[in-house]
């Protein structure tokens, strides 16, 4: 964050420092936006964010051009630090629907509410289990099935993950 070129005029050194600082701030903002809920559980990450915010605040006194990024950084730091911490550790669960049979896909039959689908349930500790639920199941019913399978329903959340690739 504080890299300085060893050569060049004072203006070139300031431009270089400003561009590097902006890049680092953007990177930290993206990191915090993507992993905010995980960061609140990590004391070192929280300490880093707070220290980084103070450092950027100090730098805005000398480099006025950084002031434009300060409110966004402040918002992220406050948002991550103010989120309520659950008394118990959350179980982050990712559900992935997969085909029970390739034959069914080839026959192209209409899906009925009584049909069952199989979900892979991924836990934060890199393990997974499977559950079978009717297509017409509500989110509450899916969470209940997961809680029954895992033996605990405390702190369960459903995360939908998709990929353009």
TrEMBL record:
The keyword Cell division does not apply. The keyword Translocase does not apply. Keywords: Guanine-nucleotide releasing factor. It comes from the Eukaryota. Residues 1-81 form the N-terminal Ras-GEF domain. GO terms for molecular function: guanyl-nucleotide exchange factor activity. Residues 115-165 form the Ras-associating domain. One of its GO terms (biological process) is signal transduction. Gene3D superfamilies: Phosphatidylinositol 3-kinase Catalytic Subunit, Chain A, domain 1, Son of sevenless (SoS) protein Chain: S domain 1. This is RPGF4 factor. The lineage of its organism: Eukaryota, Metazoa, Chordata, Craniata, Vertebrata. The gene is Rapgef4_1.
């Amino acid at each position: 964050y504080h890299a300085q070129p060893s050569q060049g005029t004072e203006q070139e050194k300031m431009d270089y420092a400003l561009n590097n600082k902006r890049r680092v701030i953007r990177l930290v903002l993206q990191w915090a936006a993507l992993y905010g809920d995980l960061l609140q559980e990590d004391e070192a990450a929280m300490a880093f964010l707070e220290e980084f915010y103070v450092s950027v605040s100090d730098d805005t006194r000398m480099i006025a051009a950084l002031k434009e990024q300060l409110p966004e950084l402040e918002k992220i730091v406050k948002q991550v630090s103010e989120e309520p911490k659950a008394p118990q550790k959350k179980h982050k669960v990712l559900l992935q629907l997969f085909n029970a049979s390739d034959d069914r896909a080839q026959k192209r039959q209409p899906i009925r509410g009584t049909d069952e689908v199989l979900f892979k349930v991924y836990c934060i500790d890199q393990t997974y289990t499977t559950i079978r639920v009717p297509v017409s199941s509500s989110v509450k019913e899916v969470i209940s099935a997961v809680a029954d399978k895992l033996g605990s329903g405390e702190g369960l959340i459903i995360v939908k993950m998709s990929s353009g690739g």
